[in-house]
Amino acid sequence: MKEYSVIGKPIPQVDSIVKVTGRLKYITDIVLPGMFHGKILRSPYAHARIIKIDTSKAERLPGVITVVTSRDFPMVKSGRALGLEDEYPFGFDKVRHCGEEVAAVAAIDEATAEEALDLIKVEYEEFPAVFEIEEAMKPGAPLVHDHAKNNIGYEIHHSVGDVDQGFKKADYIREDRFETPMATAAAPGPRCAVADYDPVNGTLTLYTDANIIYSALPVFARIIGISEKKLRVIKPAVACAFGAKGRMNEVGIYAAFLSLKCGRPVRIERTREEEFANIRSVEPLIAYFKTGVKKDGTLVAMHCRHLSNSGAYLDFSPWDARQNVGVFDMLFRCPNVKFDGYVVYTNTIPSAALRGLTNRALNFGQNSHLDMLARDLGMDVVDFYLKNAHQKGDVTASKYKLDSCGLIECIQEVAKTGAWEEKRGKLPARRGIGFAAAGHTCGFRAYGSDLSTVLVEVDDLGCVKVISGRSDFGQGPSTMIVMCVAEELGLSVEDITINELIDTQFVPWECGNYGSRGTVQQGNAAIAAGQDVKRQLFEVVAEKLGTTPDQLEAKDKRIFIKDSPDKGVSFLWAVKDYRDSGRPMPLIGRGYYEPPTEDMDTKTGEGNVSIAYGFGAQVAEVEVDTETGKVAVLRVTSANDCGKALNPLILNSESEGGISMGLGTALFEEISYDEKGRVLETSFSDYRLPSVWQQPEVKTIWVETVDPHGPYGAKGITEVVSLPTAAAIANAIYDAIGVRIRKLPMLPWKILDALREEKSKIKA
Q: How deeply is 556 buried, as exposed, middle or buried, from its count of CB atoms within 10 A (0-12, 13-18, 19+)?
């Protein structure tokens, strides 16, 4: 494997110092001259018709600048699943979930704006509501949208081979049902936006914490009724996101509406209570699995019935269902595969992305189901996975092209390091060990384009500046991009700076950071930009040294002849020679990358939507207190196919963080509703999260498969590291106490109920 100067080294993140010294500006730090403060009025009902809105008293309150409702702007339907738009910016004729926005106020301060909300009188006609997936699908259930029969807002069906015949040929068939709840990102920084409309030139500047800007900009412009050319978006640093800050959401929309009406900057920041009660996050899921195998464990047929709760509007749910088509058969070779997905409306908060999408929920169900199936066969589940696992060069049933695939190596490594053979069936009472595996896309062609662009500028002093529209919310794309440029130019990371603010007026196109796409797409764009700078410098240096550019190398801050390292110049002198040659300054390197992937078939979910695919496997060891039902996760061993480990320091941090998030999925996190459809968990005191005290010992192994498309062979792993954890823990709990929990989170009372039920079966 090739030796690199920068790549593969444990390098701290480039923005670490500005973060720990408090000098990095976040969205909540933005203060503009003459800025007003906005607040949003939300519906107290889950399902009701809006009869009348009276804002007159609020408008007369001293300190109130303006009030906006649906009557002030043309209401344009929107949604992230193109062709399925079903949502207006404000509750237009009806509200369909508690907390839906019906008005917004701008005032001289937050307290005055909050007081004004109490003075807005809204007359409602309340309707029956429905909150559960399968209840909503029953005939006669209240319709959230009149056009959606049985509240099915979207469905997708995919079939390869003949599943019915496959089940007929199977020696053994198993069926199971699993359920996962709504969970929220619980990001430290609440959503915030500042909108600044200039009535003189008709431009609007929006400061936002959204991860996806360029792709969302046309939709945002259409909603607020302004030309794209008149909309400028600036994104300061983001304090974590975990997927939930993907789009420019309602905070930015209402700040823009208010600013457009009053002609002054308006800031809206959600309170923590609003954040929990209204933030869009991963939807609840019910998954039915049916799997048929031969006696030796060979898979012959797989079927999944996938029911997801989109909430009141579709938003991201169709994309979740579409991706799970491919995720379902991503791990295994199977000749007959069928997936039936239904996205169901309910009167709850609409869904959005969360790290790993609903792959985490599907993965929990599928791995638990197959663990039970392997036990039924009397087969070691690790051997079962190895027998059926996809390998490099395979094309999955959903048309994913696995040009690299370290799934088998991950399984083997995690079993070895996690002492699977030594511990399986040999641990003390109430101790158990469990295994699970996962796969995920390294990018996702969701918006018709997957383009990343990076510029590298070298000035007269030899200072190297990188300009990129990436979204860095802690996972390290800024560092990765700088490392790639440094490697190409033969410099150190300290020699290069990268822009902190993302500003659409100055920064080139970037799709954003989602679906673990940053490493491959942005890394390749960074390499291309660095190579463009290198090409231009090599032309000048080659002429000076009497050689050809292909004989030169850049390393250790020098450019020299490969076979005669003593013959060369420093990087700074190369820049001086470039300038003195009369070539234009600053020297600009341009790099872009758009992978040769394909748009997904929205009817079947088929298509090679990602240029690379990441894989991982985990072994978890737990101890269960049968008196209290509490589960202690003692250790997790994780093996991940990263292609090439660009930065082991960041990779290990991502692994530990991902496993912590998977631990929360398994044992803690859940958003629940009361009988009126109101969220019950509205603070960090209510919403259960694992703390440092619950974090297990983590051992991570990196499997380097060197992907042919990734930068230096690397692939994205940000999401896949968190996916197998919940299933591995569930399987370990079963191994420890012999009960199976089929609904997340696996809370102590559920474990105690399962133990009591098991005891009653034994007595009977």
A: middle
Predicted confidence at residue 356, as pLDDT, reads 77
pLDDT at residue number 186: 80
288 located within any domain = no
Report how far apart, in Å, the C-alpha atoms of 533 and of each of 228, 266, 646 are. Answer: 32, 42, 22
Count how many domains the chain has: 3
Radius of gyration of the chain (CA): 27
Helix axes 381-388, 359-377, angle to 10 degrees: 110
Which residues in the chain come in under a pLDDT of 70?
Answer: 1, 81-82, 241, 243, 246-248, 446-448, 764
Integer Cα distance of 363 and 719 in angstroms: 12
C-alpha–C-alpha distance, residues 688 and 694, integer Å: 12
Residues 627 and 573 in one domain: no
**What pLDDT, on a 0 to 100 scale, did the predictor assign at position 97?**
96
Tokens standing for residue 70? 């649906």
pLDDT, tens digit, 9 for 90 and up, residues 437-494 = 999 998 877 666 788 999 999 998 999 999 998 888 778 899 999 999 999 999 999 9
CATH assignment at residue 480: 3.30.365.10
Q: Cα(443)–Cα(609) distance, rounded to whole angstroms? A: 8
Interior/surface letters 161-195, b for 16+ CB within 10 angstroms, e for the rest: bebeebbeebeebbebebbbbbbbbbbebbbbbbb
Domain final residue, candidates 564, 593, 622 = 593
The domain in which residue 428 lies consists of 356-436+613-763
My answer on whether 371 and 432 are in the same domain is: yes
The predicted-structure confidence for 510-559, as pLDDT tens digits, reads as follows: 887 787 888 999 999 999 999 999 999 999 999 999 999 999 999 999 99
Under 8 Å between Cβ of 595 and 611: yes
H/E element, 172: strand 172-180
Residues 6+ positions from 117 with CB-CB distance below 8 Å? 39, 40, 41, 58, 103, 105
Residue 252 and residue 115 share a domain: yes
Report pLDDT for 601: 83
pLDDT at 241: 67
Asked if 165 and 332 count as a contact pair (C-beta separation under 8 A), the reply is no
Instruction: From 250, 269, 288, give the residue that closes a domain.
Output: 269
Residues 625 and 555 in one domain: no
Nearest to 541 by CA among 508, 575, 564, 518: 575
Contact in structure between 507 and 472 (CB atoms under 8 Å) = no
Asked if 574 and 537 count as a contact pair (C-beta separation under 8 A), the reply is: yes
Query: What φ, ψ does residue 464 adopt, rounded to 5°?
Result: -105, 125
CATH, residue 225: 3.90.1170.50
Give residue for tokens 């003390």. 428
Same domain, 486 and 621: no
Residue 148 domain flag: no
653 Rama class: left (phi>0) / alpha (psi -120 to 50) / beta: alpha
Same domain, 456 and 431: no
701 found inside a domain: yes
411 in the same domain as 463: no
Instruction: Kindly write down the DSSP assignment for every residue of 329-374, as one continuous string.
Output: TSSB--S-EEEEEEEEE-SSPPB---TTTTHHHHHHHHHHHHHHHH
Peptide bond into 89 cis (omega under 30): no
Q: Are residues 425 and 474 in the same domain?
A: no
The pTM (predicted TM-score) of the whole model is 0.95
Q: What pLDDT score does 23 carry?
A: 87
Any domain includes 545:
yes
**Which residues, at least 6 apart from 230, have a Cβ–Cβ distance to it below 8 Å?**
201, 202, 203, 204, 221
